[in-house]
TrEMBL record, chain A:
Protein name, per record: GATOR complex protein NPRL3
Biological function: As a component of the GATOR1 complex functions as an inhibitor of the amino acid-sensing branch of the TORC1 pathway.
Domain of life the protein comes from: Eukaryota
Main location: other
Alphabetical UniProt keywords: Lysosome, Signal
UniProtKB/TrEMBL annotation, chain B:
Any Gene Ontology biological process: negative regulation of TORC1 signaling
Taxon lineage: Eukaryota, Metazoa, Ecdysozoa, Arthropoda, Chelicerata
Gene: 107365517
Pfam families named in the record: NPR2
Family stated for the protein in its record: Belongs to the NPR2 family.
Gene Ontology MF, one: GTPase activator activity
PANTHER family: GATOR COMPLEX PROTEIN NPRL2, NITROGEN PERMEASE REGULATOR 2/TUMOR SUPPRESSOR CANDIDATE 4
GO cellular component, one term: GATOR1 complex
Protein's UniProt name: Nitrogen permease regulator 2-like protein
Amino acid sequence: MSSICNRSKTDFSPNSPDRDGFLLGIFLVKAGSIGGDSLLFRYPYTIDDDTVAPSKQEKKSKNPFALVVENVNNGHSSGPVEDNCRTVFTHYTLGPSSRPNKPSATYCFELDPVASSTAAAASADIYLETVVKLPDRVVSTLFAVKNELCGAKIEIKINDVRFVGHPLLIAQDQPQSPTSQPTSKSKDIVAFNVVFALRANASHEVVNSFHKCSQLIAAALKKEEDDKAYLSKEAKSMLTVHDEASSPSDEPRTSPYSLILQRSQLAADLKKIFEDLKFYGTVQLKLNKSSDLNLCIPQTVHRLTLKYHRSVPLIGPRELNNCFGSLRAYHALLLLRDPQTIFDSISENRPIFKRILHAAAPTKNLGQLARDAQLSFENVCKATCQLVYWAKATLIYPLTESNVYVIHPLAPTQVDCPLVEKFRATFNNSNLLRFLSEFSLGTSIDQLRNPLHNSEQQIQLFNQIVWLLKHRLISQLHTYVYLLPVNSSPCLTKKSIPDRTNDTAKGDEHQQTFNERRFSNFNSGDSLSILSNDDDVDSENDYLVNDASSLSINYERAIHLLRELGLRDYECESICQVPASKNYEDLTLFAKLCHYFDGKHHLEYIMHHENVKRSQLLAIIDKFRDVLFTCQHEDKTIFQLCPYLYE
Amino acid sequence: MPNSQKERNESPICCIFFCEFDHVYGPKLTFQVPEDIVSEDKFNALNVYLIPKKELEGRLITVNSNNLKVIGFPVGLDGPQFPRNRLIFNLCFVCVSAMRTVQYEPVVKKLAHYLINLEKECQFISNKETKSTLPKIMAAIRDQLTANRSCELTITESTTIYLKVARVRPKPDPVEDHDVPIFLTSEGSIVPSEWDLTTQQVIPFIDGYRHVAKIASEADVEVSLVKACIQNMIYYEIITLIPIFQYSNVYVTTPKISNLVESTELQEECLRCVAKAPSFKPNFRPVFQLYCSMTPGVTIKDLCVRFNPSLNGIDEKKLVHFGSLKGIIRRLNKYPILVDAPHLTSIAHQRGVYRFFDGNHSYDKICTEMSKSHAELEEKVEKHPSAVVCWK
């Protein structure tokens, strides 16, 4: 079933604020031969005072997942598990008082982003508590996995928390003689595992993204261990702290983990990984000052760039790959931050990125960008994909006068949205919502431009539109063209009410031809060129009637020309009914462009690929309007980066 | 329906096994049906998750590794009658690693509780003789659940196991006064007696045109109850919500419109759905033309005037329904906003309808809230000098 997100506020799912905080914790566990399995480090190790909700008691009573509570009832959980059919049923029919999310609660989320973030933090606590309260020895037995499970993903779900990791074995120095010198030289670590704790309602794709991170961290750690015994060294210092903490002392007990954080660089790095992934969705650091670690949770980074929008469907690797697969030279790169900031965050291929960031502009398509940056198109594409993947940039169609924009269906329009203030500060007191309302009916830049304005105001208008695009408050509508000839088989038109079976058959036939045609047209690049080749002057003269005003073409020739495109007879006839088909120039242009009229190519695509002017194209569409339908919607590639439809 | 994008398929139950902590051997895989799905090695690799530490008993644990997805609910019972004073066991379902298994979690948990009760009542598990009937029971459970997603099995005179695998779906969004429920399945397939009394009372009024507030008043049921039972029916995917149909509505096409041209099935379905009379199926061309003409600023009224859909046997209301349901068109909602108000609170203190002009309330919402007509509201908006309208 598909659902469309054009409804009012109700589509703001109660779960959505939570979606930004999938990550609940990070653990580092080692499996050892001598010292046994132990939990080396965990973060967070306490529930931070800042995040604790005002009333602790109240929270406790609400917490169905805490370890002390047995046999929880799912009736009030927001998790995906429901007890059974009957519980679910009563759950929704008990009336308003028992409903887990009253509309008014959702309403609060939306009205006040600050309130929403605290509400999210409070609800995150329920899960967080479960993770934080998990005893160390339980964690170590759970994640210090048996050797045969190493080298592959491991996923463990306990009630409503999911743990994902990628355990790795560490090569022993002398595997053939394990008993030779067990104490001095051989490593105590047999295997290790970096585990992320996530909310169980995180989707499969999100879990995979975190698994990939765990895998990358593990690979980097293993490399450092193999080269410099880094992990062994760090583990040793962590274990020392653990030993100190467990020895009896009179001092008030502080968590050993806070001490570890001070002493161990690896622990500090893991903390950074946790925090950056949770709050920014990306992390960049050098493990042991040598191994580069670049991690990214696409779902989080992309959601953060759209944080004021209503529940935008998650943008994950699948959506991004769809987007990159259909990247074209006419798309443009729109940087979401200033070039220097982006450049500073890049560690690889810096010269290429430097040139691209320097040359990028909202008016330049990727082709022009490649020329200006003096790079190959492939390199520009690759860099573009990287920038978009990391949500440092997005894709747009380059700004031109004729671009038509509408307000994005999920764009925030509430008067107290922080963007309103930001816009006011950026563009000397302009009102965002007033400006946004100009796009209500689909407006082109041309229409917005006031001829009386001076160049400064024009530049401001341009900058304002770029600003809206950066914040994805507007999206561009492209015009797509469909060829749909009149199916006027005489036998059918004569019948006033065609019988049902006949009609069905006709529909099938139509569809078949349409598919056939499209199929043939995809391979018809050469047939088109043949067509233009054999249109040499001699043969042309046979068919052309030299009219007083312009060259015209006779019916048979026109049919012949269209048939060569793979069109069905009735389609050719229908097209030839159009007055413009009598004109040779019009018909040849129509024939040339015909295979773009399948609803998959927008006008800009056709202009780019066939090098025709917009006015020419619009004129030909208008002349053949009897057989052509146009409709407007977003470019499918760009749409992937700011979707509003759920599958 | 967030998070539900491309839901993975539900996994079958590959195997059910029973494992326990043997006071001599330690964790032990006692029975499994069918045999030889979980090898001894695989069990040993995973046994820390199946017979876990005491802290994790009484918790649903799913472990997914080594191409095996095992759902279990480890149980630990204390008592002097048991060796080492403890009985630890776990009845687990084995599923396909890459498929969805949440639907089995409540079943596994419930089953564990049946076993706990059986043990407490008649030493079902500690008694070797009764324990040996477990494989038969497990096989029956697996067969019945696979065949009809539910299971009814008499174990003793006082205990009968009832299990049902419910489909787990995302929680439906809250329902608003101005939402219009519409059936996704044919109305005939709904047996009123299967539903509660309120729902039975509400069902006859669901026609795809009446909005929630209207249904409530006509069915003489409290609005919040109507909302609750509509939400319940949405959960079971029997109905969905669409915007109120009005001739002043504006719709635009979405990128999904191309599906309509590419898929013959969708086309056929569309023509069947939008026909004014069931005996006459309209041509695709005028239908598609209507959809294509849905652009910003063009109301349904404009379309009717321009194309006269009924002449072609098309019902414009059904056309809009079908388009909305399939996601090939989307409604542009109007949001009136007071732009020059210094602060949000000053809008909340406005008089009359103006207090809703904060960019959060659509025309539909304000109209149902204030019982005003669309035209009346429009007039109010035009009268106010600093009111703008965002369509989105």
